[in-house]
Specification:
The chain is an all-alpha fold. It contains seven helices and no strands. The protein is globular.
């Protein structure tokens, strides 16, 4: 029993030291206004890793990738990723937190209606 508790403690300490997931890091950088850093971080998530995530993670990824690209002036890519986030949220209501759903709604007001898009 002590061994199991020790392993769990080490795992918890290790995960704290790793700083969380790349998506969490990109979200934090975006929230701090560090858009170029957020772009570098979010682009480290490769396509196969993205596709293996559950729909909540995929929706959040698409939202933040779109927000980051929009903040950096890439309107075309922003619209594509934000459109993907919207479609995913519509297929799986509640995928995004209330705050993130509000961000998505505001981005659609800024960019206009999102056209249907295929998954990246």
């Amino acid at each position: 029993m002590r061994t199991r508790a020790w392993v769990l403690l080490l795992a918890a300490v290790w995960s704290l030291g790793c700083g969380g997931s790349l998506l969490e890091d990109a979200r934090h950088e975006f929230d701090q206004g560090q858009y170029a850093d957020a772009k570098r971080t979010i682009l480290k998530i490769d396509a196969s890793e993205y596709r293996e995530q559950d729909y909540r993670e995929q929706t959040e990824y698409a939202l933040f990738r779109g927000l980051v690209m929009g903040a950096l002036g890439d309107r075309t890519e922003a619209q594509a990723w934000l459109g993907q986030a919207k479609q995913s949220e519509e297929r799986h209501p509640g995928s995004l937190s209330r705050d993130d759903a509000a961000r998505l709604k505001l981005s659609e007001e800024q960019y206009g209606p999102f056209l249907p898009t295929s998954a990246p």
